[in-house]
Amino acid sequence: MNRVEVELGDRSYPIFIGEDLLGSQIAAQHINGRQVALITNSTIAPLYAARVKAALGNLRVDVFELPDGEAYKNIESFGSIIDWLMDNRHNRSTTLIALGGGVVGDLTGFVAATFQRGVDFIQLPTTLLAQVDSSVGGKTAINHPRGKNMIGAFYQPKCVIADTSVFETLPDREYRAGLAEVVKYGIISDAEFFEWLEDHADGLLRKDAATLTHAIRRSVEIKAEVVASDERETGRRAILNYGHTFGHALETATGYTKLLHGEAVAIGMAAASSLSTTVTGLKPEAAARVVKLLADLGLPTRIPAGLQVQELIDLMRMDKKVIDGGLRLIVADEIGTVQVTAAVQERDVADVLARCGADQ
Amino acid sequence: MNRVEVELGDRSYPIFIGEDLLGSQIAAQHINGRQVALITNSTIAPLYAARVKAALGNLRVDVFELPDGEAYKNIESFGSIIDWLMDNRHNRSTTLIALGGGVVGDLTGFVAATFQRGVDFIQLPTTLLAQVDSSVGGKTAINHPRGKNMIGAFYQPKCVIADTSVFETLPDREYRAGLAEVVKYGIISDAEFFEWLEDHADGLLRKDAATLTHAIRRSVEIKAEVVASDERETGRRAILNYGHTFGHALETATGYTKLLHGEAVAIGMAAASSLSTTVTGLKPEAAARVVKLLADLGLPTRIPAGLQVQELIDLMRMDKKVIDGGLRLIVADEIGTVQVTAAVQERDVADVLARCGADQ
Known about the structure:
The structure is a homodimer.
Chain A: E1 2-6, E2 13-18, H1 26-29, E3 35-41, H2 45-55, E4 60-66, H3 75-87, E5 95-100, H4 102-114, E6 120-125, H5 128-134, E7 139-144, E8 147-154, E9 159-163, H6 172-189, H7 191-199, H8 201-205, H9 209-229, H10 244-253, H11 261-279, H12 284-296, H13 309-318, E10 329-334, E11 337-341, H14 346-355
Parallel strand pairs in A: 2-9, 3-4, 3-5, 5-6, 6-9
Antiparallel strand pairs in A: 1-2, 7-8, 10-11
Helix pairs in contact in A: 3-4, 5-6, 5-9, 6-7, 6-9, 6-11, 10-11, 10-13, 11-12, 11-14, 13-14
């Protein structure tokens, strides 16, 4: 088992990575009270809820099952969980456990951040995307009809337990979508890791255990380091959003149904790399390497047909990362080094969107 | 003008107390972006919104008007404000201003804590209760049908501006309800201040400017000191809840319509003082002084007719301050010194409720 620390003073916590951890005692060791609320979804519950519950011994565990899907990461689900916690007399000493992917984790984290002004919570991410990204770093949120993650809080879990055995039951498409975020860590901060990914694309696609464990470990190490340096995203943490402003616009434009988050981010990173060749002078060969690695991992790099340039720009302006009207984007200087810039011309963004397949 | 600091490291902020501050430049000096969302209610808007807006010069100020009343401190109002912020393209650099009493302040603070994972906000409290209590210390929340403040966050404002001129338009009953929290500060931490209040009850009832300013300043000094020592209420801060577990149960039992918060707290403090004579051996004369001062200030000290002991105990058990089933209450050793205790017998609470007027 691997252990990575997220260093945030009195909010520090460990991430555990390894096989068959859902049935281990790790979660129980990080619970202070006697009551647990396990939040999961209808896909994951039949696969893993009983195993997690059994490992919690004689704690009182109530289980809430959401329907599966990003559409349920909304204020209605938030209200339903709060009502259910009240009905079941959960109080300030309750621990919430999120068992599922990013939707369950983000939503449960936001409930934990706000129920009775904050209760403990633990992340048991069951997708690759959630293990390498959303479960680590304390970003919790729900969506608004007009934008992703518009309502949320920075709120850190007590621990994150990444069980690599869950990929046996994870659909291949979702697994590949998670690899997009893994690639991101290489681009934003570790050229050597990016090269390692290029060399191990086959092993990753085969879900080779040792390859996968290294990829997850290195990803969360990079994320933990960035988060520790800027917990509330006032500066450097924004680099974790490489490709994401494009990606969020694509997800919103397609109604959160056509593209998985990781797929939208893959297209967004291709676009951001293309933009970088204009803005920072990133070498075209480097941008091509990004596109090739994503394609080798079975990820899309072109904007789906039928989306308009102006529509996407308007959605990008609604993104949280837009400050006082300026388009604030992350661009790459080279693979392994990125920067936040507010100096991007709307015309250049429009050109990139058109190059990547949007209609003019 | 008086200035009191709330010392919370990088979340420190000042409280300004004085006459005619709503039309001053203080708010504008604490705004970083160019957009402002002013949240107020239908009673306060016609009295003060124009004055506040004028003082913000050429910032873009949008105004949201809630209906007046505790009933609107709910998830529906929260959702409406978020929708309105999205419709008006507010972003992460927006500053929210709460212009109103505790309902507007708590709700606006919770929106600020969660909109785009947190934006700046400023408190302009227009009731005595909000000036001496709810606007200071970063507790934000909305109510749930089954309990007050069940959904919320700890989130500090950029500054608090307490304009003592607003009491000209504050109904007497609401003004007196605010005095209950002033009395609380004497009981929990300053016997000399309590005695000063006994000596100045007349001046307070007359809203004598100098008397009032001293009472507000000393109240927020005590609150600031307690909050600075325990921001997230893991320990000592709980003493600010003296009388409040009783008070919240009374408010819930009467549907938030019969008693003002301060009135419920006044009755709750009478009950807590009575309980203290059993639990800590508080002298009966001290408990009698609490009841007398509250009565001198025109506040109720008896439970309204028609409420059952068991109903109130059940509601007290739902309170956030209940930990793993035990009734955790604040009791007084003497006037000026209180303690948190989890060792209160339900029987003793029942006796007190009956003595204070509840039906058995």
